[in-house]
């Protein structure tokens, strides 16, 4: 690594740490933030030869760093059979208890019904919620590489048409969501608030936030497929 490259790495270290800590807020406590930082640094180093100061390097590096951390988290299999099985169990508990009580139930009631601690339930909810965050990331990127996103400073007619078409599809899909579904996606995905903060902000349980987010994500997938 050249002295100039080392200088670039040091200059962008705060960006790596910021991204890692932001993502870590959405994860179970069992995930070490230092692991996320490590994968982010590796992505930064690997990206050095492709950095072009005329093509928004910070935006490009942000995508590469975030992408590397997400790839690492995908390798941990947040969409595993166990996670999905637990998600179904929580969903059944919410539906049964809500029907019995005639109102939305809290995490404490759901945890008691499942015979586990509130802390364990919330750890599971974090994993479930993040699995959908990864799914949304894949959905919005639509299979395009990070290099393609910043391939040229001057976008040609084809590139503009692709982006315009994708934007139109996303807006139509999001417009079909319920108000609360839109709000939760905005708070979790765009504002990058953790599940616990969204729960407090809206005055509903973390389990309910996770459930609404899962429903919204599935609807988006269905809508986008129907537009193709």
Report the portion of residues in β strands: under 5%
Backbone structural class: mainly alpha
Count of domains: 2
Ends apart, CA distance between termini = 45 Å
Please tally the β strands and state the result: 0
Q: In angstroms, what is the radius of gyration?
A: 20 Å
CATH class of the largest domain: Mainly Alpha
Low-confidence spans: 143-147, 149-154
Mean pLDDT: 81
What is the general shape?
Answer: globular
Question: Which labels suit this protein?
Answer:
228 residues, mainly alpha, Butyryl-CoA Dehydrogenase, subunit A, domain 3, 2 domains, 76% helix
List the helices and strands and how they pair.
Elements: H1 3-24, H2 33-47, H3 57-75, H4 81-101, H5 107-114, H6 118-141, H7 146-149, H8 157-175, H9 179-190, H10 195-202, H11 206-227
What this model shows, in words?
This protein has eleven helices and no strands. With 228 residues, it is mostly helical. It folds into two domains: 1-76, Rna Polymerase Sigma Factor, Chain: A; 79-228, Up-down Bundle (Butyryl-CoA Dehydrogenase, subunit A, domain 3). The model is unreliable at 143-147 and 149-154 (pLDDT under 50).
Quick structural overview:
The chain has about 230 residues and is an all-alpha fold. Helix content is about 75%, strand content about 0%.
């Amino acid at each position: 690594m050249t002295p100039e490259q080392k200088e670039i790495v040091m200059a962008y270290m705060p960006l790596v740490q910021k991204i890692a800590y932001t993502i870590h807020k959405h994860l179970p406590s069992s995930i070490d933030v230092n692991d996320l930082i490590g994968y982010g640094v590796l992505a930064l180093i690997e990206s050095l030869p492709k950095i072009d100061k005329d093509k928004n390097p910070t935006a490009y590096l942000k995508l590469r760093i975030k992408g590397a951390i997400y790839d690492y988290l995908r390798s941990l299999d947040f969409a595993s059979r166990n996670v999905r099985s637990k998600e179904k169990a929580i969903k059944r508990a919410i539906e049964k208890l809500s029907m019995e009580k005639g109102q939305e139930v809290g995490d404490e009631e759901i945890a008691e019904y499942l015979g586990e601690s509130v802390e364990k339930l919330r750890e599971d909810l974090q994993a479930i919620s993040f699995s959908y965050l990864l799914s949304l990331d894949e959905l919005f990127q639509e299979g395009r590489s990070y290099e393609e996103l910043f391939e040229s400073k001057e976008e040609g007619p084809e590139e503009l048409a692709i982006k315009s078409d994708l934007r139109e599809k996303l807006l139509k899909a999001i417009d079909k969501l319920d108000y609360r579904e839109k709000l939760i996606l905005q708070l979790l995905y765009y504002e990058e608030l953790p599940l616990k903060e969204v729960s407090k902000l809206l005055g509903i349980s973390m389990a309910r936030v996770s459930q609404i987010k899962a429903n919204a994500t599935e609807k988006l997938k269905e809508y986008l497929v129907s537009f193709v």
